[in-house]
Amino acid sequence: MKLLRYGPPGQEKPGILDNNGTIRDLAAVIPDIDASTLGKASLERLAALDVNTLPVVGGNPRIGAPIANIGKFIGIGLNYRDHANEAKLPIPTEPIIFMKANSCVVGPNDDVVLPRQSQKVDWEVELGIVIGTRARYVGKDEALSYVAGYCVVNDVSERHFQLERGGTWDKGKGFDTFGPVGPWLVTADDVGDPQALDIWLKLNGETVQRSNTREMIFDCATIVSYVSELMTLMPGDVITTGTPAGVGMGMNPQRYLRAGDALALGVQGLGEQRQRIVAEG
Questions:
Q1: Which domain covers residue 197, as residue numbers?
Q2: Does 242 map to a domain?
Q3: Residues with Cβ < 8 Å from 149, sequence gap 6 or more?
Q4: For residue 89, what pLDDT is reported?
Q5: pTM beyond 0.90
Q6: Are 147 and 129 in contact (CB under 8 A)?
Q7: What rounded mean pLDDT belongs to the chain?
């Protein structure tokens, strides 16, 4: 299933994409797509619906983040060797973990706003893992059974604040609009192997990132298991799993986002995002 949320910011309604790419309204079935509706029983109930009997959503509505009230927004850093190399940083021997503020979450096609005093705003296309079942100390062999589905994430990052202002990476990761998520939450049964997905990003029409999730240093099962040893994962938590080479920080000369730039990015089977870069008003 491809689950989504549509409508103005703060007024999104739950929906599902049918086989023809048409949005169908789920508001009479579930109140929203959130922690309470991401468990196995709830997803099985949705999967049993005859989608063609649900109301069609007309027009071209805004698409919001596919999960309401994301709990923890957890990032995994340097999870592709080529990205670690371009960043001139050591290959991790254990997953690098940071947190993105859940207040940075926006829809997949919403504007990305350059923060005040920002100097080095960068792009990072990533595969996102959406937790569906409470997970604590889970083994790698069972870890993916706790996953509701997957989504596209742009882990927008301000490198000056992340790397040059001292402290943790978090301060460059959580600015408002720095977490475009979606367009859809694709349930795990529809994704199949999460380590076999093409991933790409274009800047102003030029492809700058292209890879496949099989190139991850730590695969999704390892990540979920590892993080569950450090904190209890709850339904509605999102883990974004790292980006391949091709970010602005790794270019020579370096290239950072400016007002007027346009990003297009996606992960195979999970949809595409499009963002316009704007200055803070």
A1: 73-279
A2: yes
A3: 1, 3, 130, 132, 185, 186, 187, 188, 190, 191
A4: 86
A5: yes
A6: yes
A7: 97
